[in-house]
Amino acid sequence: MAEEIICLGKKFNSDDERREYFRNELRKKLSELKHIDGFPIGEDEDIIALSDPPYYTACPNPWMNDFIRQWEEEKTNLIESGIRNIEFNVSEPYAVDVTEGKNNPIYNAHSYHTKVPHPVIMRYILHYTQPGDIVLDSFAGTGMTGIAAQMCGDPEIQTKYKIEKEFYDNNLATPKWYSRKAICGDLSPAASFIAANYNTPIDLVQFKKDANRIIEKLENELGWMYQTRDQYGNIGRINYTVWSDVFLCKECNEEFVFWDVAFDKNTGSILDSFKCPHCNAKLSKREIKNAYNTVRDLDSGEILQQIKTVPVLINYFKQKKRFEKIPNNDDLETINRINNFDINNWIPTERMPEGDESRRNDVNGYTNINHFFTRRNLIVLSYLRELCTTNSLLLVFNSISQTLASKLVRYNLGNRGNGPLSGTLYIGSLTAESNVINIFRGKVEDLLKAFSNSRRSIIFTSSATNQILKNDSIDYIFTDPPFGANIMYSELNFMWESWLKVKTNNKKEAIENSSQGKSKLIYQNLMTECFSEYFRILKPGRWMTVEFSNTSAAIWNGIQAAIQKAGFIISNVTALDKQQGSFKAVTTPTAVKQDLIISCYKPDSDYISIYDSRDEKGIWEFVTDHLKHLPVHLRKESNTAFIIERSPKILYDRLISHFIIRGLPIPIDAKEFQLGLKQKYHERDGMYFIQEQVHEYDEKKAQAPTIIEAGWQIATESEGIEWLKRELHGIKLKYQDIMPKWMQATTAIRKGDILPELRDILQQNFIEESDGNWRVPDMNEAKDREIIRNKALQREFSSYVELANNPKSKRMKEVRVEALRAGFKNCWDTKDFQTVVNIANKIPQNLLMEDEQLLMYYDIAKDRV
Q1: Taking Cα atoms as reference points, which of 726, 608, 722, 731 lies closest to residue 661?
Q2: What is the pLDDT of residue 722?
Q3: Orientation angle between helical segments 779-805 and 670-680, nearest 10 degrees
Q4: What parts of the chain have a pLDDT lower than 50?
Q5: Per-residue model confidence (pLDDT) at position 356
């Protein structure tokens, strides 16, 4: 007798019965769910058919709070059994160097655009949570966060050993190996569908049996399409066929096959220059134009102009050996037969959506989904799609349809295996038409290694800007959001989703995209909405980890501003080098050369009211609590690393951001703040600690006495002042001694930012003695310097105000950012928000977007004008 299934308190005799019951319930809820941001585009029945409720829905999941209620009740049992600790608290961020490769079966099973290897996420979950805690990722992609949460209870032996050693070596608490609960979602139906399959128990024996049945059926009925004969008439099985574009000579206008003329068969590369076979003219790829054919779309009847392509090479197997041949008449007859073959099964034929990426192939005549496949592969895929009747089988289809079976697959040019150009819909001049039956067979084996018969997470499909989840219901968030304009997810996923019959609603897609009319500021606003939802949902005192990748300082500052505007306080930033698989410290907020790992926390409710008080107590309560949330000691090999978040500048920046976001006046200037730091806290190596931390730092520093800092490149005036303070720390130097190093360090000044002369900066911020040596001022001298400097900055700012108020004035090409900071602060204190907006609209936009403080002032001011 089959085992009884209990789901959310209800009993069922089978999974099919459970699924059918909740599908009917989902059907009743759809009209209400459609009002939620990010509800996908598709027919109701297609959304329901794709879903496996209540665990996975291809739309917002109405049962998430029911699961949370159940999980919270289960925590009581875990406490009683000693598995959970009622006093559990995490005060410091996870700031440990990590080395982790990406070559594991789960990571490689599907070629979705971006993924963080699940063993990396496991480290964060083990640090920030305890058994039974609830983890959320609303930008989950393929669901690696869900896998990581589950595998904390069933780790691979090698991963378990490696993580335990890292925790021990870095004096972290021994990880508690027990599963955590996970809720994972994504705006993209393709992504959430993949995540659901990775996070759903699958009968692996039945899956393989069903897959083999499909392969046998395909071979019997359509295998002839991938057959070829050698010169002796022996039958071989095609592995792939290379297709080449046909071009026109710029001189004689005659056609030639690109493969014949431009491809060097000996080196496997494209020649920089080549000769026309007709007139001998010297040509290059940039100078030639495609030849076109007038064709009739067999599926729509539409007459099209498409680029002309011909088959030029067949790679095939015969008796388990690989051979290559030039297509002969038999092969061409087979292709002709296929091209006149009627497709009786459903195929997607939609027009590609608006977008720079999604419509890049319009010029080649590839305007609709079906144009992205050869006729042969379109026929086989249509038949295969009909046979994939379960979600696990449909995932195999999904994993091959776009990246392995379409015209996006480029011939490898003699180097690595055939494949698409990552993150694009680029179709090359030499494409490789794969054998769909072969790649389906191979992908079945890949997914058998990635699937599990035990993993279970809750999956939803909707925007991160508007969640069904209740306030203060999540224990920890790990999230990997979109990276500005790096990847156009909805455009790239359109082909996958067309085959699934459910597509992304991109109205709230958090990207920078000209086709969607989304600027950097709009992207930042969308990310603020997302992080505000995260803040609402996360329990007070808990942590969020944000993995982020972008080489643009403007996007990075936008993310920082969005996180802080939502209410989070940033505690630590490290960098993930995906090539090397390691984390390294980031030394400046604009040094975005690698993927960033941002650790931030939601303050305890008891502290928020104290933070928001306008008296001095609120300032130092904020600083004290924030210092408790920073790493105490970071060790790099045998050295002690400088923790930039403990420096006076960054501490003050965090304080300013906190007051600006809450619409409060800034109650203290930088010099008074630094004086307070010296009076109230303990200073070590330019960093500040509370009483309970300084002894730990001293002990650990004694074991690694050398303090190291990564090379400091100056990009702004404020960074230059900090650089000078460190150069003059404890010593005095003459101008001529400082200048050579200053010139080396100031090679990365941002475009449009006026950096004053070194002598002017020294005179406004430091003390010159009678012998010509410069030194750091004491506290009394520093106050005098600050008054002098602030007057100079305000004078300069006044000139910007005059220009901004002149309707005939043009946009300012260069400005002094420090003058803008001082002026914006003064406007903020006097509630002159209009001036902030006026000047922001006149200055170079890169300066506004790349400066955290300016962006914060402007972002709040524009909402108050």
Answers
A1: 608
A2: 86
A3: 150
A4: 1, 578-593
A5: 83
Q: Does a cis peptide bond (omega within 30 degrees of 0) precede residue 155?
A: no
pTM more than 0.70: yes
**3-state SS assignment for residue 476:** strand
Domain residue ranges in the chain: 5-86+96-201+455-546, 205-450, 603-690, 790-865
- Helix ranges restricted to H, 180-257: 189-198, 204-222
Given a contact cutoff of 8 angstroms between Cβ atoms, the answer to whether 484 and 520 are in contact is yes
For 822, phi and psi rounded to 5 degrees?
-65, -45
Model pLDDT for residues 30-75, shown as the tens digit of each residue: 999 999 999 999 999 999 999 999 999 999 999 999 999 999 999 9
* Secondary structure (3-state) at 121: helix
**What does the alpha-carbon distance between residue 631 and residue 634 come to, in Å, rounded to a whole number?**
7
pLDDT in tens, 623-657: 999 999 999 998 887 888 888 889 888 898 888 88
CB of 230 closer than 8 Å to CB of 325: yes
SS3 of 265-276: the string is CCCCEECCCEEC
b vs e for 568-596, b when ≥16 Cβ sit within 10 Å of the residue's Cβ? bbbbbbbbbebeeeebbbbbbbbbbebbb
Closest C-alpha among 136, 202, 185 to residue 456? 202
Domain spanning 5-86+96-201+455-546: which CATH class is it, in words?
A: alpha beta
Contacts of 311 (CB under 8 A, 6+ apart): 241, 242, 243, 244, 327, 331, 332, 335, 433
- Among candidate residues 471, 495, 492, the one with its CA nearest the CA of residue 482: 492
**pLDDT in the model for residue 106:** 82
8 A C-beta contact, residue 239 and residue 316:
yes
How many Cα atoms are found within 13 Å in the side-chain-facing hemisphere of 642?
A: 18
Q: Where are the beta strands (DSSP E) in 308-390?
A: 309-318, 321-325
- Find tokens 């191979």 and name the residue: 442
